[in-house]
Design a protein that fits this description.
With about 375 residues, this protein is mainly β. The chain folds into 3 domains: about 15-180, no CATH class; about 190-280, chitin-binding protein cbp21 (Coagulation Factor XIII, Chain A, domain 1); about 290-365, Macroglobulin (MG2) domain (Immunoglobulin-like, Sandwich). The protein has strands at about 15, 20, 25-30, 35, 40-45, 50-55, 60-65, 70-75, 75-80, 80-85, 90, 95-100, 100-105, 110, 115, 125, 130, 135-140, 155, 170, 180, 190-200, 205-210, 215-225, 230-235, 245-250, 255-265, 270-275, 280, 290-295, 300-305, 310-315, 320-325, 335-340, 345-355, 360-365. Strands 2-5-8-11-14-17-19-21 form an 8-stranded parallel sheet, with no helix packed on it. The protein has a 7-stranded mixed sheet with strand order 3-6-9-12-15-18-20, with no helix packed on it. It is globular, with a radius of gyration of 22 Å. It starts with 12 loop residues before the first strand and ends with a strand.
């Protein structure tokens, strides 16, 4: 991978702690393949055209990239490959995602070409930023439901470029699949700090601003394991201020287990932006759970949640709904169902339990 490594290697555990030059195309796959770039480390191509590939068609979905440093190449592909991106990743052309790949972005991803979305319900989530100079390419404008998580900031500029489109078309309705529009101009609020802590059955959320200009309010939002945010309370903002200001709010009915909080900073003209997400764990309380198992002809589902379960839904790897059931009003606790799959067969399925506190979602593989 550096000047002394010319052979393409696979199935290796690679840890980078310093500046390394990528002087060839490289693939991270196999049973053990994992690339880790630690803080202070970097992997940067020696010339344009270098490609990194993560994962392969064979085997199961695995974590293939942990990025806490810098990664800059021409193109990347993820196939049954997950990544944790906590720092800066940049490609001068495309990134391709396919087959259950999940990119958790808590840093920044800059794609100077296009994002290519193939089959198999890939996901890009986290609390960071994704900036795409080109567009999102799909096959025949395929569905992009669930592509972007609710906390990820995404900007798709749609600028023409010379990167290979591989015969795919730009999605004309990409905006409807983005929760946080990263192309929107930032609010004139400088957030100095934001935190939350368990106060014995309730959660206290506190934040400070250094400056504000025409700010209207702060909406505190919370999510559980499903990462679907709902409003908790609203706090009036100062309006305009050049001095440090402190705010606080109380969540009197936090969820069992992990509670994720963010601020929706709303301006007087209606524009808004989100803060980073913070997490509070209420220890000693069982978390909600969802499990599924079975064969290619029958799927057994069991959900256990303190929330009110409103619906069960099963989708295949293409995002098509193959089963849905509305639950009786007030259903909580353990819910079990057997779902016939005679018309769908083996493969990857996404099972969802829709509750009044968000949606629990899991992926499962069923074999013949």
């Amino acid at each position: 991978m550096n000047s002394t490594t010319r052979q393409r290697e696979t199935n290796n555990i690679i840890v980078i702690n310093s500046a390394v030059v990528l002087d060839q195309d490289y693939s991270i796959e196999g049973g053990n393949g994992l690339l880790t770039v630690n803080a202070g480390g970097s992997l940067i191509e020696d010339r344009a055209g270098r490609r990194l590939s993560f994962g392969s068609q064979q085997g199961n979905d695995k974590l293939r990239l942990v990025l806490n440093g810098t990664l800059q190449v021409t193109s990347l592909s993820f196939y049954k490959a997950d990544a944790e991106i906590n720092a800066s990743l940049r490609t001068s052309c495309n990134i391709s995602v396919a087959n259950q790949s999940t990119l958790e972005v808590n840093g920044s991803v800059t794609i100077e070409g296009n994002l290519i979305v193939r089959q198999g319900n890939p996901t890009i989530e986290g609390t960071g930023q994704v900036n795409i100079s080109g567009c999102v390419l799909t096959n025949n404008n395929g569905s992009l439901n669930g592509l972007f998580g609710p906390n990820i900031s995404v900007c798709v500029q749609g600028t023409a470029n010379a990167c290979d489109t591989e015969g795919l078309s730009c999605s004309p309705n990409i905006a409807q699949f983005i929760t946080i529009d990263g192309c929107r101009a930032p609010l004139p609020v400088e957030l100095r700090s934001f935190s939350a802590r368990n106060t014995g059955g309730t959660v206290q959320i506190v934040w400070t601003t250094a400056t504000e200009k025409n700010s209207d309010s702060f909406l505190v939002e919370r999510a559980g394991e499903s990462k679907e945010f709902v409003p908790v309370t609203s706090v009036a903002a100062a309006g305009s201020s050049q001095t440090l200001r402190s705010y606080s709010a109380i969540d009197r009915k936090p969820l069992a287990g992990n509670n994720y909080y963010r601020l929706k900073q709303i301006d007087k003209d209606g524009t808004f932006a989100y803060s980073p997400v913070v997490n509070v764990l209420l220890a000693g309380i069982d978390k909600q759970d969802l499990n599924a198992y079975g064969t290619s002809s029958r799927l057994n589902i069991q959900v256990n949640t303190p929330a009110v379960c409103q619906m069960l839904r099963v989708m295949d790897s293409m995002g098509r709904v193959v089963y849905t059931e509305n639950m009786p009003t007030g259903t909580t606790g353990v819910v079990s169902r057997e779902v016939p799959l005679s018309s769908t067969g083996s493969g990857v399925y996404i099972v969802q339990a829709v509750t009044n506190q968000g949606t629990i979602s899991r992926k499962f593989m069923l074999a013949e």
